[in-house]
Amino acid sequence: MNDDVRNIVLGVVAAGISAALGWLARTYLWKRKLRRKQAFFGLPDNSESLLVVNREAGGPELTVMRHDVFALLELSALIKDCNAHAQVVAHDAAQQGFGERTEFCVGGPASNRRMAAHLSSLLPGVRVNVDADPGPDRGAFQVGTESYQLDSGKGEYVILARLTAGERRESRPVFLFCGQRAITNQAATRYLARNHERLYRKYNGNSFVLLLKVVNSQAYGPDVVELVGDVTRAAQTPLPESETVPAPRPSRRSSRSSSGTAEGRATGS
User: How far is the C-alpha of 59 from the C-alpha of 65, rounded, in Å?
Assistant: First the structure.
């Protein structure tokens, strides 16, 4: 074997080794990224999760508002990326306990009983005005001592939370998307899809509650989403009795179905 042939053979071997090492490195990085994503969402391979949705006011079973459908599509893509499976259930049909399976709960407490239960038990420092009668405080959030009013189309708020049950490694997180309107629920799911890696690094698997503001929402979807702040401590600290918001006044409409429709419009969920 002369020098030219030997150099060619060595070049081919070196190229093959470099390609193999590059493939192994890319595979390792891809798997590490996948494992982090699965850990953040509590979705190991072939695991099950729940998508808990509200019913559109006055509609048949599992008739969901358009922007809530877009939110479910965002979440479904995340679940599929984790090699997991999703089951869509209505808010009044979800029976599982906290931490059994990863849960994504979408919608405000006026039209989503499951969300109302989560807020009451997990976020005692959060109050949502579900009064069906028109007024400046309809749909307003109270987080600790701060109040956030709905300014439709210009400034609307949504709570994005990841909550876990204690320190048990086998427990699954619950994600809450509680917005003042349905379009804000979509904004929160989109924010989570785009920022889950940063949130994983920042919170390292711990619970968090974020308050987001949707600015200049349009018919086709949210335009700008701003992070107002981390309100975890305020949301998890029970409000003093003197600071709780008044109980919602009963609607002047006597029909139960009409009252449900008004409540659905109040939160857009």
Answer: 10
Q: Distance between alpha carbon 69 and the CA centroid of its chain, in Å?
A: 13
Instruction: Note the pTM of the prediction, 2 decimals.
Output: 0.78
Q: Give the number of other CB atoms < 10 A from CB of residue 10.
A: 10
Task: For residue 49, count CB atoms less than 10 angstroms from its CB and return exposed for 0-12, middle for 13-18, buried for 19 or more.
Answer: buried
Render each residue's pLDDT in the chain as its tens digit; 269 residues: 677 777 777 777 788 888 877 877 777 777 888 899 999 999 999 999 999 988 654 455 556 777 888 889 999 999 999 999 999 888 877 677 777 889 999 988 988 889 999 999 999 999 998 887 777 778 889 999 899 988 877 789 999 999 987 655 567 899 999 998 888 999 999 999 999 999 999 998 889 999 999 886 665 556 678 899 999 999 998 887 655 444 444 444 433 333 343 333 334 44
Distance CA 183, CA 247 (A): 26
Q: Is the Cβ–Cβ distance between 243 and 145 less than 8 Å? A: yes
Identify residue 153 by its one-letter amino acid code.
Answer: G
Tokens (6 digits) for 202: 């920042």
Answer for the pair 159, 140: CB distance below 8 angstroms, yes or no. Answer: no
Beta strands in the chain (DSSP E): 48-53, 85-90, 102-106, 126-128, 141-143, 146-148, 155-163, 174-179, 208-215, 224-230
